[in-house]
Amino acid sequence: MRKKEDLRLKRHNKIKLRMFGTPEKPRLVVHRSLKNISAQVVDDTTGKIMFSLSTKDKSLKQKFPSAGNIKSSAEFGELFASGAREKGISKIVFDRAGYLYHGRVKSFAESLRKSGMEF
């Protein structure tokens, strides 16, 4: 099973070579596990995380008892977009981190677009 994760990390490293986040248009990285989803906005010029949110956070844990489905990833995308807009982030580069653009990752991305994020 570890081989599958190693292949995903290899794909992610190839993707990161072509993608680069700037302060005006930072990179949004998604990570999903079986039960949770998390995302963070990274400025690659300084290597700093500008904003991050996860379904593991205490405030969101009650709202998402099981965050391993498409419905909860769509709701999480709306919450993430509103939090990022409060920090002044509206344009991003979407980094799917080697995951297929399918299922929860696709649902998260579409809810970000619907909530006003541009990528």
Features:
single chain; alpha+beta; 4 strands; 41% helix; 19% strand; globular
The average pLDDT is: 93
Strand order of the largest sheet: 3-2-1-4
- The name CATH uses for the topology is Nucleotidyltransferase, domain 5
Return the domain count.
1
Could you say which structural class the secondary elements and strand pairing correspond to? alpha+beta
Order of helices and strands: HEEEHHEH
Per DSSP, the total helix count is: 4
Describe the largest sheet: 4 strands, mixed
- Taken as a percent bin, the fraction of beta residues is 15-25%
Overall shape? globular
CATH class: Alpha Beta
Number of strands: 4
Rg, nearest Å: 14 Å
CATH architecture: 2-Layer Sandwich
* Percent in helix: 40-55%
Unreliable runs:
none
Distance between the termini: 33 Å
Describe this structure in words.
The chain is built from four helices and four strands; from the N terminus they run αβββααβα. The protein is α+β, with helices and mostly antiparallel strands and 119 residues long. It has one domain: 2-Layer Sandwich (Nucleotidyltransferase, domain 5), CATH 3.30.420.100. The protein has a four-stranded mixed sheet with strand order 3-2-1-4, sandwiched between helices. α3 runs parallel beside α4. The longest helix has 17 residues. The termini are far apart.
Q: How do the helices and strands line up, and which of them pair or pack?
A:
Elements: H1 2-18, E1 27-32, E2 37-43, E3 48-54, H2 58-61, H3 70-86, E4 93-95, H4 104-114
Parallel strand pairs: 1-4
Antiparallel strand pairs: 1-2, 2-3
Helix pairs in contact: 3-4
